[in-house]
Specification:
heterotrimer; A alpha/beta (281); B mainly alpha (554); C mainly alpha (396); A: 281 residues; alpha/beta; Rossmann fold; six-stranded mixed sheet; 11 helices; B: 554 residues; mainly alpha; 4 domains; five-stranded antiparallel sheet; two-stranded antiparallel ribbon; 22 helices; 5% strand; binds adenosine-5'-triphosphate; binds magnesium ion
Chain lengths: 281, 554, 396
């Protein structure tokens, strides 16, 4: 092992030194989300390659608790891949991703990550097509998701109210008993956002949320996302600059799997490199 | 073509020879001078029909003195119990038995002379003593034969039972023998006898010769030297001989193991080649089009039946029938494949589980069709002469020609396929469509047309596989079923959409299967392989060589 | 709040059987058959036109066990998207467990009169009972094995497969390999299950002669009741949230994962449960047909089973039952009257159903009768939308 990565290994913040751990390296699995340092997500030195092509290249990213962060970058910059890594879909070749102080995301599977409090909206809206809007939300709801409990699960009235509340928020009250596959593209986007809300995650990863939405809906989305920030941390990937400008305090620009620039929208827009690779003249 | 190259005349005549020997008839070159007229020959034959065995022995001795072209043949027939005399006139014939009758043939011309009831002719009986004598005489005659291969075969025959008389005969011929292989075999045959000698130096020399030859016979002969008595101490007293024999035994065993290994390897590769032929068409349709063709086995079956029909059409040219059958089977199976694609599959793209069900329906229909048209019974397809027999590499290692040809043919097909995919326009389209159907369409590739041709190609190869299989197994309506699961295993193991994966998958499964068989039995070996693949797919859900990229994920 | 909602306060029974018209009709038919057929067999004189012969009774009993098997497959395929091409293996294993019990019941009435060893073991010159035959002289033990053996096999197999995310076609193919391997194994005499001939020549079950009319009726009733129970439990599962999760997994596996469901556990659970149902079906089948042999493991059987479900309508429990009855009736009819035509018919049915009736008969009926959304394609699973636990403003 090269000395640098060895050093990193030794200095990992989630565990005491190997030799002090009874039963080996993975004996300590932290279950509680610990955001005592006010940072909810640590992405450090992540690299992912597909057949030699580096989709992510030594990516570093820190998301503060309650922050709303926008991520922009040209097609193929690795934005979606980054989300894949954070949600456990793709295992990185190198690097670490931590949720809070204690949870090593690279060692967790998708459902564990979801249960720990990271929700995700896909770039292409994915909902449960044969289920009604209501059922989609019910399925997404934050609760015990083990098999036996699910078999005998009954909706409590608090849970029903919660679902109806979200249905209103996402403006699908009229479609509540409609099968999700019959929704329009924009409505599907909303439904997916609603499912995300039902999960009540600490960290929301939202990949291109406004594709297929009207101007009005876009505004509502912006409103919704800003209102979420504070209690939740939100990471939004979007190509629509106007939208990004309307919601973002901090913007990160990804390019070729690497962070090119980070800062306020204005700073980023005036960054020479960013203009070259992404924004154009 | 690979086939033509392999069919050179030398090998061909060699195969002829083996065939003939097999039937117990011996080919005699016409140049040999007859020192006895046919009439005299017949006369001396009739002396065979004696009551007493001692008289028969005399007759045989006398017969052996003449050098008639048919002497050995007659002796062999006598040995095999095919020599009969007709009761009505006491003449002697070669007889062929049918269920109720005897077909009598002339001993020299082999023309059918008469067909009589079973009671009207009687076999010329022999006892063990006569049999022994006959064998000795036949061997001696063969040892002086002009063809070294005949001589070689004769020596091999005599090796089976080393005895004083035979070893004496063999010794007479060692010096005059000028063919190297025959000479070596002769020496081994003598050594097999000499190794029992009480003379130490003869014994040691014999052991050395046996050590070089390394056949099973040699091994047993050496083992006999090392035999132990009931107290587990060596019967042989001489320590030097014991040590030497042990050394020789070791070396023989290593060599035998090596040859055994080679043989198993060949059988494994042969099975692998069959698997590859069966699976490769599937790999194309599965890999390129995402279609699970459960009727693939039945397309193989159609290929095999095509071979059968072609042989019916050209009964006098069995030699070439297989060569004709290859393109014919390709066409038949290919056209049926295109019909399946156009008629059914084109409605089901993107629904792999449905294609699986629909093609399974097709497989049932094809099976029943063949059952109705031909019969539910198995049909046997004839093997052309040039494909039968075996290539005897040395005394322990023999490779059957049909398997060898199929192995070579399979490699040929594989290379052709690689070339088609890499070098032709169709190949380009196929690869384009398999990687990104939408994009290929946008670029103006007519994807339906490519689909149909791809499916036709995969099916055609299945047909060709059927031709090969018809040379190994029975042709019947159920033959496809026997191969479909194995083919799937190969594809799943090798990884979808990768021809090399299929190649390596097929060959390794074939070889592993054959190496497992000796200690587990054939059925258990197959079960073990299936279990292995079921476990393997847990580790590598997409096979040895998985298709990469995002398109592979859904 | 714009949406007014209330829960329909229906009893469990109503929810399970009366939730939609199809279920109602199905349930009524099943009940009628369960009651009427035994009466027609026992009470109606043999020369009457209404008499149900012993042959027909047993045949219907066989169909009932097939129907249970079809429900088992529909659970995994129709509701969880796992196309198992090896479900006949679980059926056969359950059947073998039952067969072993029946075999031990023969005791010394076999041809060789050995009190302990079944005939085929005596024939093979075996001296003692193999360990895995212990306990099968007890009915309760055999019944335990009917559940445990298929369940355990499914659990281990599923654990391996689902954990590594073997899905779709790959899963289908290895399930087929599984049943094929088992078939080859059971053909071996050394396995100790009667090899080629399997287990047969049964005499009685729980002390009752298998040939007696009353025993036949009892077996018929047992099959019918097990079908009703199996149907009810399956219906309970798919109506529960677990059922909705499995359908969600079927339609959007990734989404289900990211929402926090451990997909492999759900699949494993459903797969194992389904295997147990299949095993029970096998155990009901064997005493009625009087034989179990390795042919039951043949991949063809599993695929035929898939056709039953496809024809009836996957994703509808009663569709699976309907398919099992229709296809098997056709099979019985054709193989008796026009044996050559059967494979043509079956093959043609496969092709026809997959192309023209992807949702099967029930799906087709649902499509024709559904007035809602006539333009959009009908859902695979109508029950959910028809159930409507919620009434929206638009409906009100
Ligand atoms: N599974 C995969 N196999 C091979 N290459 C992949 C895979 N996933 C992503 N890539 C490649 O990695 C690169 C980054 O992809 P990614 O989807 O993360 O880009 P993106 O920033 O989200 O782009 P966009 O803005 O278009 O959504 C792309 O070039 C893509 O082709
Ligand atoms: Mg993206």
């Amino acid at each position: 092992m090269p000395s640098k990565s060895k050093f990193k290994e030794v200095m990992r913040r989630d565990r005491v030194f190997d030799f002090m751990v009874p039963g080996g390296r993975h004996a300590v699995i932290a279950k509680q989300l610990d955001i005592s340092h006010d940072i909810v997500l640590y992405v450090e030195g992540i690299s992912v390659s597909f057949d030699g092509f580096k989709a992510l290249n030594d990516l570093n990213l820190y998301i503060n608790n309650g922050e709303l962060r926008c991520i922009i970058g040209p097609n193929g910059a690795g934005k979606t891949t980054m989300m894949d890594v954070i949600t456990g879909k793709t295992k990185p070749d190198a690097g670490t991703a931590f949720f809070g102080q204690t949870m090593d995301l690279t060692a967790m599977s998708e459902y564990e990550i979801a249960a720990a409090g990271i929700g995700r909206k896909f770039q292409k809206p994915t909902i449960f097509p044969e289920h009604t809007v209501f059922e989609n939300l019910e399925l997404a709801m934050h609760c015990d998701k083990r098999v036996w409990t699910t078999l005998f699960a009954r909706l409590s009235s608090a849970q029903q109210d919660r679902i109806l509340e979200i249905v209103d928020t996402i403006m699908l009250a009229a479609q509540i008993n409609l099968q999700a596959k019959n929704l329009s593209h924009g409505q599907k986007q909303w439904l997916e956002i609603g499912m995300l809300l039902m999960q009540n995650p600490q960290l929301l990863l939202v990949d291109e949320p406004i594709a297929g939405m009207t101007q009005q809906e876009t505004e509502r989305t912006a409103e919704l996302l800003t209102s979420l920030a504070g209690q939740h941390s939100v990471v939004v990937v979007e190509h629509d600059m106007e939208f990004v400008r309307s919601i973002a305090k901090t913007v990160t620009v990804l390019h070729e799997g690497h962070v090119l620039a980070e800062g306020s929208m204005d700073e980023v827009q005036n960054n020479q490199q960013v203009i070259e690779v992404y924004l154009g003249e | 073509m690979a086939k033509k190259y392999l069919m050179n005349s030398k090998q061909k005549s060699f195969i002829h020879f083996l065939m003939i020997l097999f039937l117990g008839m011996i080919f005699v070159s016409p140049g040999l001078a007859n020192t006895i007229s046919d009439a005299d020959f017949r006369d001396s034959l009739s002396a065979l029909n004696q009551k007493k065995f001692t008289q028969k022995i005399q007759a045989i001795e006398k017969l052996a003195e003449f050098d008639h072209g048919k002497t050995r043949f007659v002796m062999q027939s006598l040995l095999d119990g095919n020599l009969f005399y007709r009761k009505s006139d006491k003449n002697i014939f070669i007889a062929e038995k049918t269920d109720t009758e005897l077909v009598l043939k002339d001993v020299i011309s082999l023309e059918v002379i008469d067909i009589v009831g079973k009671r009207d002719a009687r076999k010329i009986s022999v006892n063990n003593k006569i049999r022994k004598l006959l064998r000795l005489k036949i061997s001696a005659m063969s040892l002086s034969h002009s063809d070294p291969k005949v001589r070689h075969a004769a020596v091999k025959e005599m090796m089976k039972k080393p005895a004083l008389e035979t070893s004496n005969i063999l010794r007479q011929y060692v010096a005059s023998e000028n063919d190297e292989t025959v000479k070596n075999t002769l020496r081994v045959a003598i050594a097999l006898y000499d190794v029992k000698s009480d003379d130490k130096s003869i014994k040691l020399a014999a052991l050395d010769i046996l050590g070089e030859s390394s056949s099973l016979e040699s091994k047993y002969a050496v083992l006999a030297v090392l035999e132990k008595d009931s107290q587990a101490s060596y019967i042989e007293q001489d320590q030097e001989i014991i040590q030497h024999a042990k050394k020789i035994l070791d070396s023989i065993e290593t060599q035998l193991k090596f040859y055994g290994f080679l043989e198993t390897l060949f059988f494994g590769l042969s099975l692998g080649s069959v698997l590859l032929l069966a699976a490769i068409g599937l790999a194309i349709t599965f890999g390129v089009m995402g279609v699970i063709n459960m009727a693939h086995g039945e397309l193989i079956m159609l290929g095999a039946y095509t071979t059968y029909v072609i042989q019916l059409l050209m009964p006098n040219n069995i030699e070439y029938s297989v060569l004709v059958a290859i393109p014919a089977a390709f066409l038949v199976a290919g056209i049926v494949g295109i019909m399946i694609e156009r008629g059914i599959l084109q409605f089901l793209y993107g629904r792999p589980l449905e294609t699986l069900l629909a093609t399974f329906g097709v497989s049932l229909v094809l099976q029943q069709l063949v059952r109705s048209v031909f019969s539910p019974l198995n049909r046997s397809v004839e093997t052309p002469e040039w494909m039968s027999g075996a290539w005897q590499i040395n005394s322990t290692l023999a490779i059957t020609f049909n398997r060898l040809y199929i192995l070579l043919f399979c490699i040929f097909v594989f290379i052709m396929l690689l070339l088609i995919l890499k070098k032709t326009a169709l190949g380009l389209y196929i690869r384009a469509v398999s990687q990104n159907r939408q994009m290929a369409k946008a670029m103006g590739v007519r994807s339906e047309w490519v689909d149909a041709l791809t499916f036709g190609l995969g099916s055609g190869i299945a047909g060709v596989a059927g031709v090969a299989l018809s040379q190994l197994t029975n042709v019947g309506p159920n033959m496809g079923q026997a191969y479909i699961i194995d083919s799937f295993m190969v594809v799943v193991f090798g990884g979808v959409g990768n021809l090399w994966g299929t190649f390596i998958g097929a060959m390794s499964l074939g070889v592993v299967n054959k190496f497992l068989e000796p200690w587990s039995g054939a059925v258990l070996a197959k079960i073990l392989i299936l279990v292995f693949i079921i476990l393997f797919i847990q580790k590598r859900p997409r096979g040895l060589f998985p298709q990469k990229g995002r398109s592979a994920e859904n | 709040m714009t949406a007014q909602a209330h829960i329909k306060n229906k009893s469990l029974i109503t929810q399970l059987f009366m939730s939609d018209k199809g279920s109602q009709i199905f349930f009524a038919l099943l009940m009628t058959m369960t009651i009427v057929v035994p009466i027609l067999h026992l009470a109606v004189p043999a020369d009457s036109a209404l008499h149900v012969s012993a042959y027909t009774l047993t045949l219907l009993g066989k169909y009932l066990s097939f129907a249970l098997l079809a429900i088992a497959l529909d659970l995994v395929w129709g509701y969880c998207g796992i196309l198992s091409l090896g479900h006949a293996a679980f059926f056969a294993l359950g059947g073998y467990a039952m067969g072993m019990y029946l075999m031990r019941q023969i005791a010394d009435r076999g041809v060789y009169g050995n009190p302990e060893l079944p005939d085929f073991m005596v024939f093979l010159d075996w001296q003692e009972l193999p360990w895995f035959w212990y306990g099968f002289d007890q009915f309760w033990f055999a019944m335990l094995m009917v559940i445990l053996v298929p369940g355990l096999l499914a659990y281990i197999f599923g654990w391996l497969a689902f954990r590594s995310r073997v899905t779709g076609v790959y899963l289908s193919i290895i399930t087929q390999a599984l049943t094929y391997a088992l078939m080859l194994a059971f053909f071996r005499n050394e396995m100790g299950f009667g090899g080629n001939n399997g287990l047969t020549d049964f005499k009685d079950i729980l002390g009752y002669n298998l040939q007696d009319d009353s025993t036949r009726v009892a077996l018929f009733l047992a099959s019918a009741i097990m079908l009703i129970i199996g149907y009810t439990v399956a219906k309970f599962i798919i109506n529960s949230k677990l059922g909705r999760v499995t359908v969600a997994i079927r339609d959007a596996e990734d989404r289900a994962r990211f929402v926090g469901y451990k997909v492999e556990n759900y699949k494993l659970w459903v797969f194992t449960f389904s295997a147990v149902l299949a095993g029970i079906a096998g155990a009901l089948y064997v005493p009625q047909v009087g034989i179990i042999n390795p042919g039951e493991f043949s991949p063809l059987n599993s695929i035929e089973l898939v056709v039953w479900v496809a024809v009836g309508g996957r994703g509808y429990l009663y569709g699976a039952v309907l398919g099992a009855f229709i296809v098997n009736f056709a099979k019985t009819y054709f193989t008796a009257v026009l044996p050559e035509v059967w494979l043509f018919a079956l093959g043609g049915l496969f092709i026809f159903v997959t192309i023209f009736m992807p949702q099967g008969i029930v799906g087709l009926i649902a499509k024709l009768t559904s007035k809602k959304n006539p333009s959009s394609s009908p859902p695979i699973e109508n029950q959910f939308s028809e159930q409507k636990p919620w009434k929206s403003k638009a409906d009100a």
